[in-house]
Amino acid sequence: MFGRIARRYDLANRILSGGIDLYWRARLVSSVAAGHPRDVLDLATGSGDVAFALARALPRGTRILGMDFCAPMLDEANAKKSRRPGSGAIEFRIGDGLALLLPDQSFDAVTISFGLRNMADRNRCLAEMRRVLRPGGRLHVLEFSQPQRWVRPLYSFELRHIVPRVAGLLTGDRDAYRYLGDSIEAFPGMDALSQEIRGAGFAEVRASAMTLGVVALHIASR
What we know:
By secondary structure, this protein is an alpha/beta fold. Helices cover about 45% and strands about 25% of the residues.
């Protein structure tokens, strides 16, 4: 499904979010930069937006590895990389978030943006991210959440009726964005996801809501 929409994925994100997805990712990148990591894994990197933003925000020489299960998405990421000078420190690689072919304790920070929701087994993915983090390393999860109660009816209408139609025109794949709405509505809210992250063995879990609770940023330590 993600392979089918890879070429128009960035455009659809900008238009469907009204550009506010750039702000959400900027908040994530700022939280990563505050920890001064040397090695960063961006899991479910997609077309690489977060990886490129990290490269701009972090000191030269920081290692950034973007991994994704979807090869067409990584093709888009590598095409961007070829057009962007100064992004040579980023490596993009095929990877399964449920079985990362990476050594234990090899990263200071792991980020995942709008990808945890798509994992077939969230607990297994959280365990893998914890495994590859060094002691004291930080997990940063940017993900859709459950908005404030008074917003939910309007938000649900948008997800079910407006988003698939607009995205269908942009990408030619309305079904992919029906899945988006279904997966968002079935995803746990901020407090419940915080509990899942604690249950996976992380400490110092904290979360902040953005845009009336539509999105939340979770930060936790190994």
